[in-house]
Amino acid sequence: MSTTQTFSIASIPADGVGKEVVSAGRRVLDALAGSSNGKFAFDWTEFPWGSEYYAKTGLMMDPKGLEALKDFDAIYFGAVGWENVPDHVSLWGLRLNITQNFDQWANIRPVKFLPGVQSPLRKADTVELDWVVVRENSEGEYAGLGGRNLSGRGPGNEVALQTALFTEKGCERIMRFAFDLARTRTVKKVSSVTKSNAQQYGMVLWDEVFNRVALDYPDVRTESVLVDAMSAKFILKPEDLSVVVASNLNADILSDLGSALAGSLGLAASANLNPERRFPSMFEPVHGSAPDIAGKGISNPIGAIASAALMLDHFGLHEEARKVEAAIEAATGSGHLTRDVGGDANTEDVTEAIIKALTLAQATV
Ligand SMILES: NC(=O)c1ccc[n+]([C@@H]2O[C@H](COP(=O)([O-])OP(=O)(O)OC[C@H]3O[C@@H](n4cnc5c(N)ncnc54)[C@H](O)[C@@H]3O)[C@@H](O)[C@H]2O)c1
C-alpha cells in the first residue's frame, strides 16, 4: 500500500494582486495533488500578514511569525505593498524579514518565453531564448546597513548612508550555486554581472571570487559583464545567456527587464532558497502588489503558478513541476491570455485553462 506524502505549506498572500494569484496557484497545486492517486497532498496554513494586518496592529507580521513559519516545508508568498504603509516598512517588515532571517540566500528567477505570448523583442520570434537570473539574496546592496543622521543641523543638512555588503563567503556560495545550476543546463555558461570599474571594493571582491570559483568548473564557460552592458545584452544578444549571476540590486533590476522581454512582469516566477534546508524556502511571483489592477480579477496568475512549479522542484516532484509548466504553455498557446499579455481573459479563465490542461495530461498518463 502506498502512503501519501504530505507537504505543509505556509501561504502568505499579503497585498493587492498577491491575494488573487496565490489563490490561483493553490488551486492548481490542489488539482495536481487531487489527480496524483494519493501520491502527495498539500496541507495549507494561511497567514493574514501584510498591509491590512499593519493597519490593525502596527506590524507587518506577528512578532512570533518566524517561529510559526520555521517548521513548514515551504512558504508560498504573494506580494507586499499598499498605500497605507511606506514601501520600505512593508518590504522590510514582511518579505525581507523572512528572506534574511531564513537565510534564503539564493534567488532564482527564470526568464521564460511562452507560446502565444508576444515578446517586445523581435528576435524572440525566431530564436529560442531561455535563461535564468541567479540573484544573491542576502547581502549586497540590500544588506540593510546604514543610517540617517544630522537632521538636527536644520533643513537641507540630513545625510543618509546605504552601505552594500560583499562577503567572500556570500559571493562564493552564490557563484557555486550558479555554476552547479549551469552544469544542469544544455548551455553550460555563467555570466557574472559586475560594476567593478566604479565600485572598487565590493565588486572587485565579487570579480575575484568569480574568477577563483570558475577554476573549479572548467567545463562551464564564463564571462564577466558590466551591469550597464548586461542590460544592453539582455536586449541585443539574449541568445548568448544561460545562467546570469548578479548581486541583490543588479539581479532585481535585470530580472524585471527579463520578464518584460518575455512579455510581462506578471509571467515571472521566483524561488528564494535556503539551499542547506535549515529553514523553509519561499516561492513567489517576481511582481509586486500591482495596486493599479488589484481587486479587478484581471491579474496574470502565471508568475505565481510557475513559482508553484519551482516549489514542486524543491519538493523533489520534478515530473509534476514539468507538468505544471507544460499546462501553462498549453494555456497560453491556446490563447488564454490576460490583458498584460494582449488578451482579454481574466485571472479565473487562465487558472481554469491551466487546471484543465493539467488534468487532461494526468488523465492521459
Ligand atoms: N516581492 C514583492 O512583494 C514586491 C515586488 C515589487 C514591488 N512590490 C511592491 O508592490 C507595490 C507596487 O509596486 P510597482 O507598481 O512598482 O510594481 P508591480 O510589480 O506591482 O507593478 C508594475 C506593473 O506591472 C503590472 N503587473 C504586476 N503584476 C502583474 C500581474 N500579475 N498581472 C498583470 N500585470 C501585473 C502592474 O499592473 C504594473 O503596471 C509597491 O508597494 C512595491 O513596493 C513588492
What layout of secondary structure does this protein have?
Elements: E1 5-14, H1 17-34, E2 40-46, H2 51-57, H3 65-69, E3 74-79, H4 87-101, E4 106-112, E5 130-136, E6 140-149, E7 159-165, H5 168-183, E8 189-194, H6 202-214, E9 221-226, H7 227-236, E10 243-246, H8 248-262, E11 269-273, E12 281-285, H9 302-314, H10 318-333, H11 347-363
Parallel strand pairs: 1-2, 1-3, 3-12, 5-10, 8-9, 8-10
Antiparallel strand pairs: 4-5, 4-11, 6-7, 11-12
The structure holds nicotinamide-adenine-dinucleotide.
Summarize the structure.
It catalyses: (R)-malate + NAD(+) = pyruvate + CO2 + NADH. The chain has helices spanning 17-34, 51-57, 65-69, 87-101, 168-183, 202-214, 227-236, 248-262, 302-314, 318-333, 347-363, and strands at residues 5-14, 40-46, 74-79, 106-112, 130-136, 140-149, 159-165, 189-194, 221-226, 243-246, 269-273, 281-285. The chain is an alpha/beta fold and 365 residues long.
Structure in words:
The longest helix is centred in the N-terminal third of the chain and has 18 residues. Strand 8, helix 6 and strand 9 form a beta-alpha-beta unit. The strands form 2 sheets. The chain has a 10-stranded mixed β-sheet with strand order 2-1-3-12-11-4-5-10-8-9, sandwiched between helices. Strands 6-7 form a two-stranded antiparallel sheet. It has 2 domains: 207 residues, Isopropylmalate Dehydrogenase (3-Layer(aba) Sandwich), CATH 3.40.718; 144 residues, Isopropylmalate Dehydrogenase (3-Layer(aba) Sandwich). By secondary structure, the chain is of the alpha/beta class. Bound molecules: nicotinamide-adenine-dinucleotide (NAD).
